[in-house]
From TrEMBL:
It is a multi-pass membrane protein. GO terms for biological process: mitochondrial respirasome assembly. Keywords: Endoplasmic reticulum, Membrane, Transmembrane, Transmembrane helix. Residues 1-24 are annotated as: Disordered. GO terms for cellular component: endoplasmic reticulum membrane; mitochondrion. InterPro entries: EMC6-like (IPR029008), RCAF1 (IPR010742). This is Rab5-interacting protein. It comes from the Eukaryota. It is found in: Endoplasmic reticulum membrane.
């Protein structure tokens, strides 16, 4: 059995709660540089981090109120920086195993842009008109 297969098998035997919530070991995995990741699992995590960032930034941008293309650019740069920092610095995955930086940085970007623009526009429109 190769190292990659043994890590995959190790993950499949972790305890899960019956109600579908993350067990403490799964939550700890989010910040464990020694944990093993498969492509779908890491993609899902990066996708949902981006969605959370899109929603939070959209709510903040709309409530302050911030307007203009510069704030959209700042969101994109900030979001990509946080995603890069997460996979390269915090969990330290080898990006080449997951298709390179481009593939990892694209994960969830279009959905997060949509959520960001929607929440930004709605909050701004409701709060300031």
């Amino acid at each position: 059995m190769s190292l990659k297969e043994s890590k995959s098998v190790k993950f499949n035997h972790q305890p899960q709660h019956q109600n579908g919530h993350l067990s403490p070991s799964k939550f700890a995995k989010l910040f464990d540089p020694e944990a093993s990741w498969d492509k779908d699992e890491l993609g899902d995590i990066l996708h949902w981090i981006r969605q959370l960032l899109g929603l939070v930034c959209g709510l903040i941008w709309g409530s302050i109120p911030l307007v203009g293309g510069i704030w959209f650019t700042i969101f994109l740069v900030m979001s990509s920086g946080i995603i890069y920092g997460y996979y390269a610095v915090i969990i330290k995955v080898d990006e080449e195993e997951f298709g390179g930086h481009g593939a990892l940085l694209q994960e969830g970007i279009f959905a997060s842009i949509t959520l960001f623009l929607l929440s930004w526009t709605l909050v701004y429109s409701l709060a300031h008109f």
